[in-house]
Specification:
The chain is α+β, with helices and mostly antiparallel strands. It has a single domain, classed as Sandwich (Jelly Rolls), CATH 2.60.120. Helix content is 16%, strand content 29%. It has helices spanning 28-40, 65-78, and strands spanning 17-21, 51-52, 54-55, 87-92, 95-97, 102-103, 113-118, 126-128, 133-135, 141-146, 151-153, 162-171. β8 (126-128) and β9 form a beta hairpin.
């Protein structure tokens, strides 16, 4: 067989990034305890993905009512800029990063939107490479961004584990 046509070309596309702060103080311990439970289950993804640390299974928080409450709060804050109401959440997982763990550079291009809810303060920055932007995790920081954005972290330093709930959203098409 012969190749009829082959085209390879870089194209530019618009991306977005939102950051806001949510008050998660009353539910923080519940969410961290749930991550601790999930990383011990036999369905965990510990050290098997771009997260080179402890990780629950992919859909661990998809139906968690406490997490969903914060997803709704975050989406209400950004709705004047971006409407995610016609989206479904195929996955939402918990992570625990300890000394020397890291997240390899990656993106979630098979989704439309991605996000992270940070559960505690740490020094390990999350970098968004195309934007030349780094975010220092703080309790309650809620990020929502284009899934095309490459992101990752350096190795985690310090005695305090980093806890977060990353998630993906896909636009519902009819």
């Amino acid at each position: 067989m012969e190749v009829i046509k082959y085209i390879e070309k870089k194209i530019q596309t618009s991306v977005f990034f939102f950051e806001t702060k949510l008050d998660i103080a009353k539910d923080k311990n519940y969410l961290i305890a749930k991550i601790e439970e999930g990383i011990k289950s036999n369905t965990n993804n510990n050290y098997k993905t771009n997260v080179k640390g402890k990780m629950t299974d992919w859909n661990y928080f998809v139906n968690d009512q406490i997490f969903l409450k914060y997803l709704v709060q975050g989406s209400q804050i950004i709705k004047d800029f971006f409407d995610i109401s016609f989206s479904k959440m195929p996955d939402a997982w918990g992570i625990k990063m300890i000394e020397l763990n890291y997240t390899a550079r990656h993106n979630h291009a098979n989704n439309n939107y991605s996000g992270i809810l940070y559960l505690n303060d740490t020094e390990t920055l999350t970098s968004f490479y195309q934007l030349n932007l780094s975010i220092k995790p703080k309790e309650g920081t809620f990020l929502l961004f284009s899934s095309l954005l490459d992101h990752g972290t350096e190795r985690h330093i310090g005695n305090i584990p980093k806890y977060a709930i990353p998630f993906n959203l896909k636009t519902i098409t009819y």
